[in-house]
Design goal:
The protein has about 400 residues and is of the alpha/beta class. About 45% of the residues lie in helices and about 10% in strands. Its EC number is 4.1.1.35.
Length: about 400
């Protein structure tokens, strides 16, 4: 009896063990199947990731090119004010790709006007206004103002004229033709300071005659049209101006001194250096031109900075601002070089409420920074410009400082 009970107990235990073993086997099987499925899924996902990675490697350069094209077609412009139709003017700037003209275009564009720049790129550069190309308010026309131009505008700023001696002496006939249709005038001084009623003292057969006499004729033509045809005229007499976008090799005193100082070359002073100039920063001039244009002043107005410096003082100032060890070299004085130049701007102050505000050193530091970047750019292209003095009879160096 006892033996039968023992057998039954063992048999019961064996059954439970069998059930447990079967259960474990089932769990193991399910786990095995799940593991195999998971592995297969992982392999599939890894395969997909590898395929996606390969596709990305192929597409990435194409996506980059598309992004570059989008950037090139989506031009970002400086901020522009919105003007109503009645306040927005259509304005033409001849010589608008030049030094002064391009800064004037910037101001008028940002003020919300429609601006058309006309330039034959003799001394102007497209890069000076390229940041506006494509804007709905801006148009650039490659045209020589000696030839007729038919365009309907509200205002004209006529700045088309080579202003540096090497440029206007390169083709004096062309310079004379350009200036005879101009509206600007800067006269060699005989009275000091020069007021608007000063008639000037010009050598009609000297190297500057094509520029000086052209400006004089330009004023005569403007006032003849005003009296005969009722054309509204504004005449600005611009004195020495400097700032970014000047040609570094245009032969003018500011660009020459900065370029020479940055490159460690001697600063060349013609004559004793005692002749004087009064320098204004370009933004002051632009503000003065706009104020004059929008006034009812039809008589000539001087726009310049009455702060007078000798050329030698100016050379030393630039040398110190650059931190250059360059020497100062004295050469033979240029022919017909004005000895004293300083504007009388009382008329501009009284009638326009205009006065230059940018300190000389502040403007020079901005210009030096601009020239420094230009030198870096040109050095990378294996070209470094040299100052280009006016075409004068060269003399020997007298002494150095």
């Amino acid at each position: 009896m006892m033996k039968k009970r023992m057998v039954w107990l063992i048999t019961g235990i064996n059954r439970r063990m069998m059930k447990l073993l079967i259960a474990l086997a089932l769990i193991a099987y399910v786990a095995s199947v799940w593991g195999t499925y998971a592995n297969m899924r992982s392999l599939h996902e890894n395969g997909e990731l590898k395929i996606e990675k390969k596709i990305e490697e192929v597409i990435a350069p194409l996506r980059e090119k598309i992004r570059d094209l989008e950037v090139s077609f989506t031009q970002k412009y400086p901020p522009v004010k919105f003007l109503s139709e009645k306040d927005r003017k259509r304005i033409l700037i001849t010589g608008g790709a030049g030094f002064v003209g391009s800064h004037l275009a910037d101001k008028l564009m940002m003020d919300g006007h429609e601006v058309t720049v006309v330039d034959n790129f003799f001394t102007g550069r497209k890069r000076n206004v390229e940041h506006w190309i494509g804007h709905e308010n801006f148009e650039l026309i490659n045209h020589d103002v000696v030839e007729p131009l038919y365009i309907e505008v509200d205002q004209i700023y006529h700045l088309a004229s080579p202003a540096s001696p090497p440029n206007y002496m390169y083709n004096p006939i062309k310079t004379l033709k350009t200036n005879t249709i101009g509206t600007l005038n800067m006269l060699d001084p005989e009275v000091h300071p020069q007021s608007e009623d000063y008639w000037g003292h010009v050598n009609p057969i000297g190297p500057r005659a094509c520029y000086d006499e052209g400006k004089r004729v330009a004023e005569t033509m403007c006032y003849a049209y005003m009296k005969q045809e009722g054309v509204e005229v504004r005449v600005a007499r611009i004195f020495n101006t400097f700032g970014p976008r000047m040609h570094m090799n245009d032969g003018r005193v500011v660009s020459n001194f900065i370029l020479q100082a940055l490159q460690g070359e001697a600063l060349t002073v013609y004559g004793s250096g005692s002749q004087t100039r009064a320098f204004q920063y370009v933004s002051d001039l632009v503000n003065g031109l706009v104020a004059l244009m929008n006034s009812n002043v039809s008589s000539p107005v001087n726009l310049g900075n009455p702060e007078e410096h000798t050329i030698l003082e100016f050379a030393k100032l630039i040398k110190n601002l650059v931190g250059s060890r360059s020497q100062i070299q004295f050469l033979q004085e240029a022919q017909d070089d004005p000895q004293r130049r300083k504007p009388d701007i009382r008329k501009a102050k009284m009638l326009l409420g205009w006065d230059p505000v940018v300190p000389l050193e502040e403007g020079l530091n901005k210009t030096i920074h601009y020239f420094g970047r230009e030198l870096e750019y040109q050095a990378n292209n294996q070209y470094i410009p040299k100052p280009k003095p006016a075409r004068i009879k060269k003399g020997r160096s007298r002494h150095n400082l």
